[in-house]
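INTERNAL AUDIT FORM
Audit reference: QA-55
Scope: verify that the stored structure record matches its stored sequence.
Auditor: D.O.
Record contents follow.
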Amino acid sequence: MKFAHIADCHIGGWAEPKMKQLTMDAFSRAIDTCISEKVDFVLIAGDLFNTAIPQIELIRDTVSALKKLKDNSIKCYTIAGSHDFSPSGKTMLEVLEKAGLTHDVFRVENNKLMFTMHGNAKIAGMLGRKGGLEKEDYREIETSHLGKEMGYKIFMFHSALDELKPAGMEEMDSMPCSMLPDGFDYYAGGHVHALLEKKHGSGVITFPSALFPNNFKELEEQGHGGFFIVDENGYKRVEINMKDVAALRFDAGKKTAMQLQDEIMEKVSALDANDKIVLLRLNGALASGKPSDINFKGIFEKLGNAYFVMKNTSGLSSIEMKEPAAEAKKDAEDIIKEQRSESPLFEKEEEAVRALLSALNIEKAEGEKAADFERRVVAEASSALGIPL
């Protein structure tokens, strides 16, 4: 028996047309590789698409790729991920299944999760929901009977696990490995865009990472994506390298905007950028000038033979920008004192206002979902005001 474990394709995830096309091309290449490797079946552990209802062009190209599997008598088993999932149940995955291109293994009968059979393999799966809400499914749906059945068993899931959270993803909603059903040989994970593995009972939990990097940070750190091919000898990762990535970092510390611009221009002029994805990350505080003084248009033109160029200036600031911020803080303090009530609504009103301002100023952590971030802000604000949620 030989099968492929793919996860987090996020077809349609990039807004830029050229990057969106690369994501689609990565999926097509993965399917072609599965065919050439003569796998018996393919698992897609959630987030095939980046949204429940993707663009028609993406649907067309995805159907074309999946049809190649069907034409080669290779079945494709899926579960919905947090991006595929729709509370209404009306997702493109349902359409693909109706067309006979995929088979959803999230099957529940009489509140019991059921197996889908493929030869000697038994496959079951739990879908992923937005905000980690699938944990309620794990609590409510009966799974204990699955571990008692004999045979080679595969469990597909789309959730982060407490014991397998990479650095930088601490705020990601997760659940303990103990919530996974026992007694499976292979646990095919999705949702976490990182290469991860862990023994679980007599089996192994794996995450193959995203099939194609889904943002600037993933491109910078991973360069490319991939998937697993599993057989009796274990599993191996197949790399899907669509374009070479050249990641350049620049420190603005003690430099003027023009000095930093000259440094960037010098490095990109010496770079062989032909058909590469070029990433420019700028950090630090400029000694003078503002980030907007840097001629990024000219820099991008210098990289005209690159496949695509992206910059990240979220960590770039300047002393000129910081000084007004300090003044704004002073003004805020003055406003708090000026507006102080003679009859405060509650004890320590000034301290509560400062705490509320601090709560509303927290930043979103890497890997943290928007819904989780919003809940954290609300919790901090409620705590600052002494109001129970």
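Auditor finding: record pair retrieved intact. The two ends are 51 Å apart (CA to CA).
Action required: none
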